[in-house]
Amino acid sequence: MTAGTAVPATDPLTLDDVEDRARALLAPEVYDFVAGGSGGEATLRANRAAFDRCHLVPRVLSGVDTADTTTTLLGVPASMPVAVAPMAFHAVVHPDGEPAVSRAAAAAGLPFTAATLAGCPLDELSVPGGALFFQLYWLRDRDRTAWLIDEAERLGARALMLTVDVPFMGRRLRDLRNGFAVPAHAAPVNLSDTQRGGGQSVGAHAASVIDPTLSWSDLEWVRRRTRLPLVLKGVLDPADARRAVDLGADGLVVSNHGGRQLDGAVPSILALPAIRDAIGDACEILLDSGVRSGTDVLRALALGAGGVLLGRPVLWGLAVDGETGVTAVLDLLRAELATSMALAGAPHVAAARRLGVRGASATHVREER
Predict the structure, then answer these.
(1) What is the pLDDT of residues 135-147, one digit of tens each?
(2) Active-site residue 364, yes or no?
(3) Of the listed 90, 94, 205, 257, which one is catalytic?
């Protein structure tokens, strides 16, 4: 779609429009499960407010009429600096579930991150022509943890993403008030038969399967156990980032779990610059939590990320129209990013990462290079 082209009134113009449509279609308790955060949802709200306080400093007279959004993420070519985030229980919003999302991501030229709590076998998510990342929870069942790592390697996953900010689930009050439980049709089939959790609350299920004692020594075990690039998801402190790099991490995801874990945690976008300053280019840095537009992706690049993980908007697209809805979300995000980059005078992703950012709580200016 070119700038100025009229669109039908029924077409969504923003990712927020897609969410509005999904909310109208989904049962209230399902919408709340996806949309909600933990506690009073202060971090959930702060994620968006922090993005809005980060103001880009565009460059002029750059001669940019189109922008090239292509890049690589963890060594994988990508049509834009975006991968689909790991998310559980896709089938609660649409019966086509994770396979539809993985196909849409592959068609869009983007990596798809399969979750430990996926509702279908992992081999259904390894799409020809697609790039698969695998997200790992540290399970109480250590044999199953090892099996999941081996299965990811067997299926050709390009990275292993260990979630480190979920010793147990945050108190998600919307789910508690709604009595939301893991539906049998969306239960995580890659766990052992006794751990799939159908009918349990999400918090109770997580407590039964996730080992809360995950520590730095366990990270060393994972590093020795796999040949895959190892990414830690859920890092917010620069000291933790430095230690992860020292222990062999190949990448970090600066993330507060979309506001679903510690309520009151720092917004990811505000934690990003200090982590980049702490580790430099020692490993790749991605970001999630609160990304809702192409301009948000550009802000993350300018503040030091190599790319972002996109979560809830993908599920909104899935809820609205299955695979086609996810494709529409990814196409819209890429169009927004290309427009924002061109208006900022950034012809490519490397130039986007040299843009300056001003904000009420964060100031970041990159040196000319």
Answers:
(1) 999 999 999 999 9
(2) no
(3) 257
